[in-house]
């Protein structure tokens, strides 16, 4: 049974920081592209950042220079360090595990991030 469990969300003031974690089980973690997506009310889910099995990263333009994605294959965990948070970063953040070309994709349950004063 595959599980992706996110943690680390919460309420933070503009300019603040949060670190999200996603612990994976039931998959061979090191093979997967791991990503963070977010969905704000009334908007479509969008890619925030992802990281390949080899460590190559990709970021949405809106978060470049502020967010950092990383992975620890020994702990089967992917992280999203979010700095200089803005109100427009408010959303539910979802962890994603994708094995390209094998039609294997999984989602976490999501964690709420609210940026507000």
What does this 3D model show about the protein?
- There is one protein chain.
- This protein is mainly beta and 117 residues long.
- Helices cover 0% and strands 53% of the residues.
- It has strands at residues 3-7, 10-12, 18-25, 33-39, 46-51, 57-59, 67-72, 77-82, 91-99, 104-107, 111-115.
- The strands form two sheets. Strands 2, 4, 5, 6, 9, 10 and 11 form a seven-stranded mixed β-sheet that branches. A four-stranded antiparallel β-sheet has the order 1-3-8-7, with no helix packed on it.
- A hairpin with a 4-residue loop joins β7 and β8 (77-82).
Q: How is the topology of this model organized?
A:
Blueprint: E1 3-7, E2 10-12, E3 18-25, E4 33-39, E5 46-51, E6 57-59, E7 67-72, E8 77-82, E9 91-99, E10 104-107, E11 111-115
Parallel strand pairs: 2-11
Antiparallel strand pairs: 1-3, 3-8, 4-5, 4-9, 5-6, 7-8, 9-10, 9-11
């Amino acid at each position: 049974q595959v599980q992706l469990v996110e943690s680390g969300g919460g309420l933070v003031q503009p300019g603040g920081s949060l670190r999200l974690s996603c612990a994976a089980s039931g998959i061979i973690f090191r093979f997967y592209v791991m990503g963070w997506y977010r969905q704000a009310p009334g908007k479509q889910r969008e890619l925030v950042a992802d990281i390949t099995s080899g460590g190559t990263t990709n970021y949405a333009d809106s978060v470049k220079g502020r967010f950092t994605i990383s992975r620890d294959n020994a702990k089967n965990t992917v992280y999203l360090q979010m700095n200089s948070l803005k109100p427009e970063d408010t959303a539910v953040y979802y962890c994603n595990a994708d094995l390209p070309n094998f039609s294997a994709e999984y989602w976490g349950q999501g964690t709420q991030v609210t940026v507000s004063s």
